[in-house]
């Protein structure tokens, strides 16, 4: 086949300038002298895009031509972060672009700031999906990401009197230069209606079939995003779906003269992809959410079958061509959808269809909290997707028959394993459906996968031991080291060459340099420069002043009780108390800046109270003339990927302090370790593996282990006993209760205090003393800059395992068995 002719701009400063001016003139319709910052940004983004276009077309063409075994990542969330820098680095254009722009009198740094990041995810799960597609592209794996093009991403957080107030995230208003709309590839998706039986064929060939007659339909329009590999000549695709009203439906009503109704139907359809659910860890049982899930999954399956497979493809061979990876339960409705396509539309018999379906899906679980496991009431699901509910019932019947057969009719076991829960309302347990259907089920860190097998999905693990596996999460070194930390990247490359960017295990070669005083000095210089970058950012962005000469102690992640931001703030309060009461002199403390970044789900009342508490404590600490000499709290609003990119490289201490057995993995923990922060953390999630790799001497471990916490809960945990026994704890909680941080008002934080003293589900009080002790060890260690930076360098050198490239290799070997194409 002939190679397609694709125009590519010349990879030189002059070539870049030419392309840039063309964009400014012809696409933006303006000239250098009159262009706004946004004009410049759009012109730049499109210019960079042009350099990647040939690779994108070539990659896509080759996927189609070779039909390799591929991966389709199904995820309701992609927390992408800004695109410009990533594209510049991937295309090896950083220097050329900077020089080209400078020659036009433009500063590249100013244009970077103009990009609003696509925040199409909540937290860890969404960012993980973004890291994974980056790694797949970089490793030349034929892969496509499927998701939703939310018109509004994760809300913009603001603080009013220290309390969270949410604003809509209008990320599309400035123009969306990274996306390509393809209305010509729109897909129709049905909802509601009813099912019918009918006889297909005649005489001996006659078979009874079912058809679904939807009550209404919407269109899905695909928007393609480039997913550039790192300098390997490949660009994969992320395809996000946007909902539209069907033209026919719309027009019919419109022609009847009912304009209001025509608008209503349009609004219904377009609402589906309007906004990301800002919930993290507790599913919203809202029908619109189920609509979103079915919408994107139905579009994606249809698209894969119709657009990415050859016309004559025999769907019996589908498992040879694709693995659909289910990112948590959000896309699990894809299972009955594929069954429906095969049985109702393609005429497969049930067993044949099930055989294909089961081999096409794999499921990743991202949680351990029972309340985070999605369930859909059958009346909701049956109204919205009547045929899918029938299919789920049949899958369940056949599954439970096997359970009965193998268990000698153990009805208690059958009830526990059923896809359908009977209480409190009859509902579909999406995690059970996923587990029954999937070829493989994986957790996201060793401990998490173990707990899935032993606790959350124990019955299933006994039934299908070989189904369960682990793939420890990872993060992309391109964005979170190469791009976020140019100083450290330069230092590493100088020492060991640049291969580490795509082969992070090579960081091991840095180990001997931990003992090299000159290297450590330069390492500290980089950390210091990164702190100054953070100082500038916080001053500019938030009007927050921080001292780069202090230890930077950072806790950034979604606000959730199990993550225990309260434990961190109780530590701050204890330090405050000790200074104010004269127990310690400020000279004897290591000066610290405690940085928080956290969004709370808008409906999560306790999480919002905790945000207010942190802000109020921060205000009192900052206003105190003595305390503020050695302790400051900074809580910049609206923590996001962009902020992380400046914050993580500046950190000295990484706070990973969840109750053991609750954080599935964590990925922030990996980003900090890779950027040379030391971790203070519990034996939870991937912390366990981080500590094993970096070594106990370079990690501050504290707190109960998972078995200890479980045993204590079993025996009857009484938080108030810790309050009674522990003086520091009592004083800290009393300060809060007595209104020290609420202008004397004792009711303000009463709910937080009484929750801790009464239930304390996540055992903050039990771990308090152990945490204080660990913080003392932190202080002692920080006083010795040479020893500290030695540990920091060893953290970097020994964290190569946490590259998402390694995660992708593990998925390939253990789950997908997809092909790897040669780089181009
Ligand atoms: C439906 C509501 C909802 C939304 C999101 C429920 C649950 C979730 C996710 C499972 C929450 C999440 O982001 N989990 C995080 O996934 C990361 C990537 O695997 C892990 O590193 C985190 O430990 C886990 O909390």
Question: TL;DR of this structure?
Answer:
With 824 residues, the chain is α/β, with parallel strands linked by helices. 49% of the residues lie in helices and 15% in strands. The protein folds into 2 domains: 67-82 and 117-366, Rossmann fold, CATH 3.40.50.2000; 477-802, Glycogen Phosphorylase B (Rossmann fold), CATH 3.40.50.
Helix coverage percent: 40-55%
CATH class of the largest domain: Alpha Beta
| Radius of gyration, whole Å | 27 Å
What is the fold named in CATH at topology level of the largest domain?
Rossmann fold
- Any idea what the CATH architecture of the largest domain is? 3-Layer(aba) Sandwich
Shape: globular
Domain unit count: 2
Major sheet details: 10 strands, mixed
What is the beta-strand fraction?
5-15%
Per-chain topology:
Elements: H1 13-27, H2 37-66, E1 70-74, E2 78-79, H3 84-90, H4 94-103, H5 108-112, E3 119-120, H6 124-138, E4 143-148, E5 156-160, E6 163-167, E7 179-181, E8 187-191, E9 194-200, E10 207-213, E11 216-228, E12 235-245, H7 247-255, H8 259-271, H9 287-308, H10 318-321, E13 322-327, H11 334-345, H12 350-360, E14 361-364, E15 375-377, H13 378-384, H14 386-407, H15 411-417, E16 420-421, E17 427-429, H16 430-437, E18 441-443, H17 446-456, H18 458-463, E19 468-470, H19 477-483, H20 486-496, H21 517-542, E20 551-556, H22 565-580, E21 592-597, H23 605-623, E22 631-634, H24 641-650, E23 653-656, H25 668-674, E24 678-681, H26 687-694, E25 700-701, H27 706-715, H28 719-725, H29 727-737, H30 750-758, H31 764-782, H32 785-797, H33 804-816
Parallel strand pairs: 1-4, 1-13, 4-12, 13-14, 14-18, 18-19, 20-21, 20-23, 21-22, 23-24, 24-25
Antiparallel strand pairs: 2-3, 5-6, 7-11, 8-11, 9-10, 11-12, 15-17, 16-17
Helix pairs in contact: 1-2, 1-4, 6-33, 7-8, 11-12, 11-14, 13-14, 14-15, 21-24, 21-32, 22-23, 22-29, 22-31, 28-29
The structure holds ligand 26W.
């Amino acid at each position: 086949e002939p190679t397609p002719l694709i125009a590519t701009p010349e990879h030189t400063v002059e070539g870049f300038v030419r392309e840039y001016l063309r964009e400014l003139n012809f696409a933006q319709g303006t000239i250098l002298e009159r262009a706004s910052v946004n004009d410049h940004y759009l012109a730049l983004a499109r210019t960079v895009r042009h350099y990647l276009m040939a690779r994108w077309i070539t990659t896509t063409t080759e996927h189609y031509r070779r039909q390799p075994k591929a991966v389709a990542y199904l995820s309701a969330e992609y927390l992408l972060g800004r695109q410009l820098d990533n594209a510049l680095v991937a295309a090896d254009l950083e220097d050329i672009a900077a020089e080209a722009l400078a020659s036009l009198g433009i500063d590249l740094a100013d244009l970077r700031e103009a990009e609003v990041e696509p925040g199409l995810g909540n937290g860890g799960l969404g960012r993980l999906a973004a890291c994974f597609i980056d790694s797949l592209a970089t490793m030349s794996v034929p892969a496509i990401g499927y998701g939703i093009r939310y018109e509004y991403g994760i809300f913009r957080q603001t603080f009013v009197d220290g309390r969270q107030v949410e604003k809509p995230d209008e990320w599309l208003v400035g123009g969306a230069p990274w996306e390509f709309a393809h209305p010509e590839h729109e897909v129709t998706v049905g909802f509601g209606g009813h099912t019918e039986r009918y006889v297909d064929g005649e005489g001996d060939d006659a078979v009874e079939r079912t058809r679904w007659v939807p009550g209404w339909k919407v269109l899905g329009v695909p928007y393609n995003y480039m997913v550039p590999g790192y300098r390997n000549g490949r660009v994969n695709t992320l395809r996000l779906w946007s909902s539209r009203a069907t033209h026919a439906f719309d027009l019919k009503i419109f022609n009847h003269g009912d304009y209001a109704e025509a608008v209503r139907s349009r609004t219904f359809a377009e609402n589906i992809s309007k906004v990301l659910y800002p919930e993290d860890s507790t599913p919203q049982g809202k029908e619109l959410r189920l609509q979103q899930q079915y919408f994107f999954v139905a579009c994606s399956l249809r698209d894969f079958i119709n657009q990415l497979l050859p016309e004559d493809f025999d769907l019996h061979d589908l498992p040879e061509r694709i693995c659909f990876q289910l990112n948590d339960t959000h896309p699990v409705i894809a299972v009955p959808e594929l069954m429906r396509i095969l049985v109702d539309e393609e005429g497969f018999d049930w067993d044949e269809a099930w055989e294909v379906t089961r081999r096409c899906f794999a499921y990743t679980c991202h949680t351990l909290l029972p309340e985070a496991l999605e369930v859909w009431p059958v009346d909701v699901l049956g109204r919205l997707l009547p045929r899918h509910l029938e299919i789920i019932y049949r899958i369940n019947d056949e599954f439970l028959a096997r359970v009965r057969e193998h268990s000698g009719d153990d009805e208690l076991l059958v009830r526990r394993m059923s896809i359908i829960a009977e209480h409190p309302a009859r509902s579909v347990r999406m995690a059970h459906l996923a587990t029954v259907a999937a070829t493989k089920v994986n957790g996201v860190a060793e401990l998490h996968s173990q707990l899935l097998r032993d606790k959350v999905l124990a019955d299933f693990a006994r039934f299908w031991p070989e189904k369960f596996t682990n793939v420890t999460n990872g993060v992309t070194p391109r964005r979170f080291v190469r791009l976020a930390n140019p100083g450290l990247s330069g230092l590493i490359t100088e020492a060991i060459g640049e291969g580490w960017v795509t082969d992070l295990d090579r960081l091991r070669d840095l180990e001997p340099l931990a003992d090299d005083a000159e290297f450590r000095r330069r390492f500290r210089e980089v950390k210091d420069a990164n702190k100054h970058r953070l100082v500038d950012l916080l001053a500019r962005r938030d009007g927050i002043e921080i001292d780069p000469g202090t230890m930077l102690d950072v806790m950034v992640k979604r606000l959730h009780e199990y993550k225990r931001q309260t434990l961190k703030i109780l530590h701050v309060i204890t330090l405050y108390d000790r200074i104010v009461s004269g127990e310690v002199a400020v000279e004897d403390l290591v000066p610290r800046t405690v940085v928080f970044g956290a969004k709370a789900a808008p409906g999560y009342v306790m999480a919002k109270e905790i945000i207010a508490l942190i802000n109020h404590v921060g205000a009192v600490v900052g206003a105190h003339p003595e305390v503020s000499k050695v302790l400051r709290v900074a809580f910049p609003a609206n923590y996001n990927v962009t902020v992380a990119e400046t914050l993580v490289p500046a950190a000295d201490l990484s706070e990973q302090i969840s109750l053991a057995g609750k954080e599935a993995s964590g990925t922030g923990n990996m980003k900090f370790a890779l950027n040379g922060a030391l971790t203070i953390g519990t034996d939870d999630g991937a912390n366990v593996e981080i500590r094993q790799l970096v070594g106990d001497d370079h990690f501050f471990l504290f707190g109960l282990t998972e078995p200890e916490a479980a045993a204590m809960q079993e025996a009857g945990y009484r938080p108030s006993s810790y309050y009674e026994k522990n003086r520091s704890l009592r004083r800290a909680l009393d300060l809060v209760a007595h209104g020290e941080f609420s202008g004397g008002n004792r009711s303000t934080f009463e709910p937080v205090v009484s929750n801790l003293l009464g239930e304390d589900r996540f055992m903050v009080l039990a771990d308090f003393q152990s945490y204080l002790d660990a913080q003392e060890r932190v202080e002692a260690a920080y006083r010795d800059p040479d020893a500290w930076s030695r540990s920091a360098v060893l953290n970097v050198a020994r964290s190569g395992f946490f590259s998402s490239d390694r995660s992708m290799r593990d998925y390939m070997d253990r789950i997908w068995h997809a092909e790897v194409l040669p780089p181009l």
